[in-house]
Write a structure and sequence with these properties.
single chain, about 140 residues, mainly beta, 6 strands, elongated
Amino acid sequence: MPREWLKLVFHQYGSGEDNVGLAHTQRIHTNDSIEVRWFNRPESNGILKIAFSLTGNAGCQYGGGICCTVHGGPKSSFLGWRTYHRMWFHKDLFAVTLGGGQMKNPGRYLTLLPPINGANAFTGTPYFTENPGDKAQMWT
């Protein structure tokens, strides 16, 4: 926290072999966030504070028949962002948050399987096969 009103989080890693059914894959990943509280009046009976956050995520995995690009096997990577704006009021008893984001994930990298009809990461489903190269697009 370089300032009381500013928070920065940068998280990167470049290891991991924890993919069910995809032995010998490696992962590189980053999550980076900034949060700025741009309004602060703790004595107020109305709006107390207002802040926004912006987060970016990127990552890929390679080896075991998949790769970070389209060359050499199914692409398994993603790029995403999200932003939120929050307002607190009435002595921090209430708050309103608005926000959203998007993720482009052409290989279902780190996408969790919905447990439809008892499905799990080993079984898959006809709707979400968990096969490398399956696409996932998300908006919030």
